[in-house]
Amino acid sequence: MTTQSTNVPSRWQRFLNSDFIYFFKKDKVAMASFAAFMVFVVMALLAPMLAPTNPYDLTSIDIMDSELPPSWMEFGDERFLLGTDNQGRDILSTIMYGLRISLAIGLFAVALQLVIGIVVGLCAGYFGGRIDSFLMRIADVQLSFSTMMVAIIVSAIFKASFGSDFYSQYAIVMLVVIIGIAEWPQYARTVRASVLAEKKKEYVEASRVMGLKSLRIMFRHILPNCLSPILVISTVQVANAIMSEAALSFLGLGMPVDQPSLGSLISIGFNYIFSGSWWITAFPGIILVALVLVINLLGDWLRDVFNPKVYKG
């Protein structure tokens, strides 16, 4: 008995020996994308320690250092590797702090989408009938509007109702709510389709015969079997949320200029790009494109891994 118990692999060992890790090690694009994504995450989390300056600290900013080119160019300053913006802030530092805001908005917005979409999708697929029709009609109405249209309308209403100062103070929370509300139908429709397939299986019928409550069957038994498509959608939705935040900030409806996100940095620099200060927009734009690209590549890989027609164990 003792010998058998000691030979049982741990949960972590089973994960390392799973097909998921096996296919991940075989795919160099997935490994490179994940490594690049982790670099972005580390830059964001450790921005206070890694960034040369703090863009929120007004005492460390000198307006005389505004619009300095990258250090390798003529008139560049070695203190500012990627140059400075119109306020004299170090571009590299603002990018690191901007990554924190963009990633936070993307992840929390997707978390809100998950909660709303999973609850709606589970209820619609499991109960069916009028509940299904009512919830799906709401989702159809939501999908009839583009994400940016919903986000622009809601953010404009928030600004008009509570004022620009209130919006600036709670800009991150506002953007999370706006983007989360705009994108939840994607999850609801996907979860509903998975639930319709799962609820016909024998384990669901057995759970009903045992007298288990509907909520327990939905969340403890059906939902775990629907996680594969949810995980794939989530990676794509994180990229979409980051792009939505960047677009709203560029239009002046997102993060304020004194709280740098990748979108607000691009918006600030766009006003100066024709005067020759291209680096204010170029470097945040490159980082934004690279971040969205690696997330989408990871999403494509996950979609293929969870598709048995593509990867066969």
Overview of the structural elements:
This protein is mostly helical. The protein has one domain (70-305): MetI-like fold (Orthogonal Bundle), CATH 1.10.3720.10. Helices cover 70% and strands 0% of the residues. It is built from 15 helices and no strands. Helix 4 (28-45) crosses helix 15 (279-305), helix 7 packs across helix 10 and helix 14 runs antiparallel to helix 15 (279-305). The longest helix has 37 residues, at 91-127.
Q: Quick recap of the structure?
A:
This is ABC transporter permease. The protein has 15 helices and no strands.
Keywords:
single chain; 313 residues; mainly alpha; MetI-like fold; 15 helices; globular; disordered N terminus; transmembrane; MetI-like; ABC transporter permease; cell membrane
